[in-house]
Amino acid sequence: MTLTPIAAIILGILLALWLGGAVWALVTGQRMRREGMQAQGKLDRLAMLLASAPAAPVVIHPDGRLEAADRLAKWLGKPRVPTFSSELTAADGGLEPEDAATLAREIASAQKAGKSFALPVRGVGSSRLLLVRGAPAAPGLASNGGVVLWIFDATDSQSEIQALKGQVDQLRDALEALAGLVEAAPFPMWHRTPDLRLSLVNSAYVRAVDGTDAREVIGSGVELVEPVSGLTPQAAAADALARGEPVERMVPATIDGERRTMRVVDVPLGEAGVAGYAVDQHELEQARVEHRRLEAAQRDLLDRLSAGVARFGPDRALRFWNQPFISLFALHQEQLADAPLFERVLDEMRDARRLPEHRDFPAWRGERRDWFLSPDPVEENWLLQDGTHLRVYAQPLPDGGLLLIFEDRTEQVQLSSARDTLLRVRTATFDNLFESIGVFSSDGRLQMWNSRFRTVWGADEEMLATHPRIDDLMRAVQERLAKPQQSNLVRELVRAATVERKQRIGHVGFADGRIFEFAAIPLPDGNALFTMLDVTDSRRVEQVLRDRNVALEQADEVKTAFVTNMSYELRTPLTTIAGFAEMMSAGYAGELSASAKEYVDGILQSTGRLSMLIDNVLDLTQGEAGTLPIDRAPVDLAAVARASADRVRADANAKGIDLAVTIEASLGQVQGDARRIGQAIDHLLENAVRYCGKSARVLLHGDGGADRARIVISDNGPGIPAAQQKLLFDPAARAGQARTGGKAGIGLPLARQLAQAHGGTLELVSQTGQGTMVVIELPRG
């Protein structure tokens, strides 16, 4: 049969579709097979897991049908698993009748109210205990009203619980016995929980903290001991818990109102907490402390003694020695470190040649050994080969030992010998002093005196030998005084020195014209030293000097008055000369020739110069006398300084000197006399220009601070020698220079007086070849 092309195409399409459907069916079947196998495997694993579970599952349908694992029949002692729930809860279902009835009620309640339950049940005649847990079944497991039971075999757990109950009973009995023992303990005991809070205290603890009962003490957390060095009882318990071993410490505590020393022990109990107890160690510690204190005090006392000390024990071994003992007998620490015996120590002392020489040394040593058995102390004196004198004191001790004390008396012997020599020297020195000296005791009696004392007062040796009182002595010698009543002054001074312990001085005149200065000085021993010194000559010289000083002051006043008067007297003719010269210069006497006019100008310059010199001399004289008049008004120092510079600028230019002026704004104002300050600056600038050579440089500088203003005049001239600087401000030196024809300028002294009159200062700094600098400082007020 022949197919048309269209039929062939349709047939091909149908075949292709059929082939595609077959392939899809094959693939889908393979996939569904794999899913089925996976589901079957998962179901098998869940069945195995359910079979190995510790509980047997039971599903009760609403109609009472029952599905359960085969293990349930074995637990119930039945050959097969019940088919209906009524069989499980029946009287012969394998459960105790009461348990079966209770289980039936719980199942019915779960079916109706959807209530879960847990119920222990026991098989008839069996020791097996079953735990039944019931709950409404899920919708996919059973229809509405179904119940799922999980039945656990709790037999082993119950046995273990019973065993634990027995152990708990035993532990409770042991705990009660232990609590009774703790309560009966005579010392405080307590227990802390793992968080270190008190959980148990005994009656001794309650009494120790003055508590009412244990409940009140635990509730308040009252601690037995106080924190020591920042360590609280809780911290100590935590330390013991961390170490895992008991920790013991000695701490103070207040027990029954008394401070006691307690030995506190914290015992860690692992997870149960920390137990503790405290034992009163006060008396024991006091005894130990007292014993140590006494022993330390004795050792310290013996070690501080200047005498050598050695203590031997009952076995005659050296137990203690001090440093003077080693030094006294030239021993070494190494020789005594191994506690040598008494005989060996004596041998070491003999080897150092620090024992007295004896022909039979063993016998002498044996006699010293008997000191250990002597009932009474023994005292000896040893003279060593080098002249050392020792006093030896041997004291037997109650424990059979021996205490030896070696006192070096060499210095005392030497001092005793030197004292006699010193007394003789003192007597000779005391007796030959130029001063008159007497020593009076506290009762006013004359104890000692020298020959000068006897000579000055003209007293008899026989009278002084009776050690008269100061009253009797003064009555006997008062006629030798220029004023006999001055004897009362001497008595009062001696009394003040002996009774009031006060030092007094004065002077007294004798009838023969002599004058004595005296002093009454208290001595450390309660006596008083009375000394007299002849000052007649010095008083005469002093009077002469005083008279001369008065004469010099009068002469100075005359000089000042003379200079003042002469200054005023010179001004009158000088003013007349200057007036006529000015009139001639102005042409009042007719026209002058050029040479005549030059002469008149010279006259005017000279009269002006002479007038300035007279003013300077007068100012200097008034300044030295303290009568220089000074006005007080605000002074612009910058204007005054520039004006002074302008006045000397012509002379500076004539000599080719560079005059520089630097005035800072801080110079400001002062309270003073503008004319006098300008006068001082003029003198300093003139001196600088006068003594500087050509092409020199002079600087005028001004600045200041909050309380003072400063003006500095400096130059780079030849400078002033150091020896001459000391004479510039000395009036006597200036007068000497004037007499010898030297340059006795008064500019610098006058400038200093003007500065001082304003309360300021003037300082000169100069060095040969380095120039000169003068600094004036003036206060603002």
Automatic annotation (TrEMBL):
<dbReference type="Pfam" id="PF00512">
    <property type="entry name" value="HisKA"/>
</dbReference>
<feature type="coiled-coil region">
    <location>
        <begin position="154"/>
        <end position="181"/>
    </location>
</feature>
<keyword id="KW-1133">Transmembrane helix</keyword>
<dbReference type="InterPro" id="IPR036890">
    <property type="entry name" value="HATPase_C_sf"/>
</dbReference>
<dbReference type="Pfam" id="PF02518">
    <property type="entry name" value="HATPase_c"/>
</dbReference>
<keyword id="KW-0808">Transferase</keyword>
<keyword id="KW-0418">Kinase</keyword>
<dbReference type="InterPro" id="IPR000014">
    <property type="entry name" value="PAS"/>
</dbReference>
<dbReference type="InterPro" id="IPR035965">
    <property type="entry name" value="PAS-like_dom_sf"/>
</dbReference>
<dbReference type="InterPro" id="IPR005467">
    <property type="entry name" value="His_kinase_dom"/>
</dbReference>
<feature type="domain" description="Histidine kinase">
    <location>
        <begin position="565"/>
        <end position="781"/>
    </location>
</feature>
<feature type="transmembrane region" description="Helical">
    <location>
        <begin position="6"/>
        <end position="27"/>
    </location>
</feature>
<dbReference type="GO" id="GO:0000155">
    <property type="term" value="F:phosphorelay sensor kinase activity"/>
</dbReference>
<keyword id="KW-0902">Two-component regulatory system</keyword>
<keyword id="KW-0597">Phosphoprotein</keyword>
<keyword id="KW-0472">Membrane</keyword>
<dbReference type="InterPro" id="IPR003661">
    <property type="entry name" value="HisK_dim/P_dom"/>
</dbReference>
<dbReference type="InterPro" id="IPR050736">
    <property type="entry name" value="Sensor_HK_Regulatory"/>
</dbReference>
<keyword id="KW-0175">Coiled coil</keyword>
<dbReference type="Pfam" id="PF12860">
    <property type="entry name" value="PAS_7"/>
</dbReference>
<keyword id="KW-0812">Transmembrane</keyword>
<protein>
    <recommendedName>
        <fullName>histidine kinase</fullName>
        <ecNumber>2.7.13.3</ecNumber>
    </recommendedName>
</protein>
<dbReference type="InterPro" id="IPR036097">
    <property type="entry name" value="HisK_dim/P_sf"/>
</dbReference>
<dbReference type="InterPro" id="IPR004358">
    <property type="entry name" value="Sig_transdc_His_kin-like_C"/>
</dbReference>
<dbReference type="InterPro" id="IPR003594">
    <property type="entry name" value="HATPase_dom"/>
</dbReference>
